[in-house]
Amino acid sequence: MKQFLILSLLLVLTTTGCTTERLNNTTSLPEITSIEKMPVKMAFHSSQNKDNFTEIAFKLEHVDDSAINSEDYQLQWPKYILDNEEIAYKVEDVKMSENSLDDEPLNDHELGFTLRLSPAVMKERDKVMLQIPVYVIPRLFEEGYPFNVREPHVDRIVTGDLVIEDLKLEDRVIEFNLIDKHPDHQEQDLSYLFSRVQDNESIYPLFSTIESGSGSSYVKLEFAQSISLPARFSVERTTIEIPEWRFPFSIPVNLE
């Protein structure tokens, strides 16, 4: 009997400890309200209750102020959203706007998204954190990853999940190191098509040299004519689909 009581007490203490740890973990979720993946940035904008639902607004924008189109990015939202106490909210609707967000005008490099959740988040609760995983497919890169060169030597250029380092341009030749951060870059052999973009037309190099190394590839391109600055180039993957980016938002909701 005594052994049974001791065992029961240990089980209660263990269960209580697990519950406390679980609550501590969920209530101390780190805030993730803004995520950037060149050239795009997505950020939590606002939250408000309306009747029996809650509206959550996000802004998607190009950080280089280049124009953004509603077809440039395909966003996939979850059907349900959990908060830090594992209460589920259904995503009833998602509206996209090119003109305004919360009655504020949007510029041509910005898009607004408004989610309608039900049931409404209770105003009486403190420190409500919503976990919202968003998958973003950058459709604007389907025809290649563009990058601009304004100087004959550039240390680093980031475009989407491609990184270009130690770029040198002289006369008809451009050379650089290419780092591909595609999620499947280690599982598949990647090949690329390089071009120069001028007057919306693609100009392909006469000679191309690509040497794969550890973590990067050395690229050397020679064109038929001298390259004047500024110049625009493009890198297109030919053996793999464009990636799907995961933006794991964890946002605080303060309702008044």
What do these coordinates show?
With 256 residues, the chain is mostly beta strands. It has two domains: 34-141 and 244-253, Immunoglobulin-like, CATH 2.60.40; 145-237. The protein is built from one helix and 20 strands. It has one helix at 2-27; strands spanning 34-37, 40-50, 53-62, 73-76, 80-83, 88-97, 100-101, 104-105, 110-118, 128-138, 145-149, 153-159, 162-170, 173-180, 192-198, 201-203, 207-212, 217-222, 231-237, 245-253. The strands form four sheets. Strands 1, 2, 3, 4, 5, 6, 9, 10 and 20 form a nine-stranded antiparallel sheet that branches. The protein is elongated, with a radius of gyration of 25 Å. Residues 1-26 have low confidence and may be disordered.
Ranges with pLDDT <50 over ≥5 residues? Answer: 1-26
Q: Which CATH class of the largest domain is shown?
A: Mainly Beta
Continuous helix count: 1
Give the % helix.
10-25%
Total strands: 20
Radius of gyration: 25 Å
Question: How do the SSEs run, as a string of H and E?
Answer: HEEEEEEEEEEEEEEEEEEEE
Protein name: Lipoprotein
What is the gist of this entry?
With 256 residues, the chain is mainly beta. The chain contains 1 helix and 20 strands.
Which tags fit this structure?
single chain; about 260 residues; mainly beta; Immunoglobulin-like; 2 domains; nine-stranded antiparallel beta sheet; five-stranded antiparallel beta sheet; 1 helix; about 10% helix; elongated; disordered N terminus
